[in-house]
């Protein structure tokens, strides 16, 4: 048996390639939408992908199950559990608890493990050429290394009410019936790692075991003592902010993501064409340079995506394909690099990348407005209607922020205008921890029509300045 983990550092998401080496058949579980990596793996091992399955209706990325099944003429498998309200809207084989997918000598058995979502499946894998019982458990967003899938995401991201309590109870029951009943040696392969918003304390280890989690996970004592309420309270406390684009992912994954098919290579866009497109709104520039270079001068209205490694996450914060019909032009040295950005973008359903421009030469540039920490108090005195906005997470904000700053995370600012002052009600002064998230959020807000000033150095820079003033005995502002 072959089992390979395909990990996306951008979204902290793991898919799995399981192959029967005897029959040369393979199953892919929870693929992302840019599917070439799975086709390459199959070709490398001389295998044919005959099945594609997913664990649940994802909220954090756009599933590649339909895409890969169509490209390989394989069978798509999705959950048939969870009740009428949790059924997929596209054609696929429905799996129920205890049903299996056979790959030569390998048996992959679905287990219904609700809690993170009502329809959630996990997959027990038995290598029939070696053993007659399962040795591996693909847990999706059920059990992570050191943590569990959050049950509040439907409330937090999708707008449902109080589903977190029922979900937490389901997780407790799923652990008792479908996880802790397994032998300690069973290896656990989760759907996410550290950095994912699908849990609050995910470990970075790529796998774990039932026995290790039973003994060392935070939830172990609650299960051992049958303390359901204590488990629920601990599980729900301190869950991180969910990005606003999660709601769109949930809808699109339920209905079935649009098929991409063969994607054309991004074309080089001439300076004149870009200028015209920016003027009439048909094009939008994605500035991929570091924050310091963007602050030195960028195109008015350009989006800021400072890191290829987080391009999917950040474009999901900064661009809404459901309300914005602009085509994207990415600043990139060549078509291959631009295509890599496109791969990241389609993972969150942003399919609008049309081309690239290798340089900003010949374009009119301007420096985004910034304010030094030492000048913040004076600016606020001069502009009493200015609104101070902390775009870090709720947890970061609660641990300390600039005095009088409101909080709305960078992943929500574009999508929650009701939580912001009117565009003509005064400038926004924004900050994050170090400036990178703030650059993404501030650029998106400017393109949406807000007048934004970025706090230089963000909260870390302000904190250093405030500490220095305290040492001098001249502090003019307080940290909360």
UniProtKB/TrEMBL annotation:
<dbReference type="InterPro" id="IPR001279">
    <property type="entry name" value="Metallo-B-lactamas"/>
</dbReference>
<dbReference type="InterPro" id="IPR044528">
    <property type="entry name" value="POD-like_MBL-fold"/>
</dbReference>
<feature type="domain" description="Rhodanese">
    <location>
        <begin position="382"/>
        <end position="464"/>
    </location>
</feature>
<dbReference type="InterPro" id="IPR036873">
    <property type="entry name" value="Rhodanese-like_dom_sf"/>
</dbReference>
<dbReference type="GO" id="GO:0070813">
    <property type="term" value="P:hydrogen sulfide metabolic process"/>
</dbReference>
<dbReference type="Pfam" id="PF00581">
    <property type="entry name" value="Rhodanese"/>
</dbReference>
<protein>
    <submittedName>
        <fullName>Hydroxyacylglutathione hydrolase</fullName>
        <ecNumber>3.1.2.6</ecNumber>
    </submittedName>
</protein>
<dbReference type="InterPro" id="IPR051682">
    <property type="entry name" value="Mito_Persulfide_Diox"/>
</dbReference>
<keyword id="KW-0378">Hydrolase</keyword>
<dbReference type="GO" id="GO:0004416">
    <property type="term" value="F:hydroxyacylglutathione hydrolase activity"/>
</dbReference>
<dbReference type="GO" id="GO:0046872">
    <property type="term" value="F:metal ion binding"/>
</dbReference>
<keyword id="KW-0479">Metal-binding</keyword>
<dbReference type="GO" id="GO:0006749">
    <property type="term" value="P:glutathione metabolic process"/>
</dbReference>
<dbReference type="Pfam" id="PF00753">
    <property type="entry name" value="Lactamase_B"/>
</dbReference>
<dbReference type="GO" id="GO:0050313">
    <property type="term" value="F:sulfur dioxygenase activity"/>
</dbReference>
<dbReference type="InterPro" id="IPR036866">
    <property type="entry name" value="RibonucZ/Hydroxyglut_hydro"/>
</dbReference>
<dbReference type="InterPro" id="IPR001763">
    <property type="entry name" value="Rhodanese-like_dom"/>
</dbReference>
């Amino acid at each position: 048996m072959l089992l390979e983990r395909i990990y996306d550092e951008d979204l902290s998401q793991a898919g799995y390639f399981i192959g029967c080496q005897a029959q040369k058949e393979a199953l892919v579980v929870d693929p992302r939408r840019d599917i070439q990596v799975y086709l390459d793996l199959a070709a490398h091992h001389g295998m044919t992908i005959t099945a594609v399955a997913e664990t649940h209706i994802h909220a954090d990325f756009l599933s590649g199950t339909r895409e890969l099944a169509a490209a390989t003429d394989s069978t798509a498998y999705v959950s048939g559990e969870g009740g009428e309200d949790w059924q997929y809207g596209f054609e696929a084989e429905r799996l129920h608890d205890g049903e299996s997918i056979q790959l030569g000598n390998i048996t992959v058995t679905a287990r219904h493990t609700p809690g993170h979502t009502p329809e959630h499946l996990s997959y027990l894998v038995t290598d029939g050429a070696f053993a007659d019982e399962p040795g591996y458990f693909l847990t999706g967003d059920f059990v992570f290394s050191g943590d569990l899938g959050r049950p509040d995401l439907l409330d937090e991201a999708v707008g449902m009410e109080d589903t977190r309590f029922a979900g937490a109870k389901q997780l407790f029951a799923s652990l008792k019936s479908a996880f802790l009943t397994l032998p300690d040696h069973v290896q656990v392969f989760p759907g996410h790692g550290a950095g994912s918003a699908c849990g609050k304390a995910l470990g970075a280890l790529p796998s774990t075991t039932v026995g290790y989690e039973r003994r060392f996970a935070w939830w172990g004592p609650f299960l051992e003592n049958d303390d359901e309420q204590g488990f629920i309270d601990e599980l729900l406390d301190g869950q991180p902010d969910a990005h606003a684009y999660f709601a769109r992912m949930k809808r699109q994954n339920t209905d079935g993501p649009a098929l991409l098919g063969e994607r054309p290579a991004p074309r080089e866009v001439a300076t004149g064409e870009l200028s015209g497109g920016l003027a009439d709104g048909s094009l939008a520039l994605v500035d991929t340079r570091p924050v310091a270079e963007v602050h030195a001068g960028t195109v008015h209205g350009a989006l800021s995506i400072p890191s290829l490694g987080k391009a999917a996450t950040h474009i999901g914060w900064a661009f809404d394909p459901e309300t914005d019909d602009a085509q994207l032009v990415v600043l990139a040295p060549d078509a291959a690099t631009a295509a890599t950005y496109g791969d990241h973008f389609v993972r969150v359903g942003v399919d609008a990348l049309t081309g690239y421009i290798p340089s900003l030469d010949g374009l009119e540039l301007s420096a985004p407005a910034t304010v030094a920490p030492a000048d913040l108090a004076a600016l606020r005195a001069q502009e009493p209607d200015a609104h101070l906005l902390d775009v870090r997470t709720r947890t970061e904000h609660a641990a300390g922020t600039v005095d009088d700053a409101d909080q709305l995370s960078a992943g929500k600012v574009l999508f929650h205008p009701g939580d912001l002052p009117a565009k003509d009600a005064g400038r926004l002064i924004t900050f994050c921890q170090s400036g990178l998230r703030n650059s993404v959020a501030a650029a998106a807000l400017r393109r949406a029509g807000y007048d934004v000033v970025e706090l230089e150095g963000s909260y870390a820079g302000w904190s250093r300045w405030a500490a220095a003033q305290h040492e001098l005995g001249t502090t003019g502002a307080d940290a909360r």
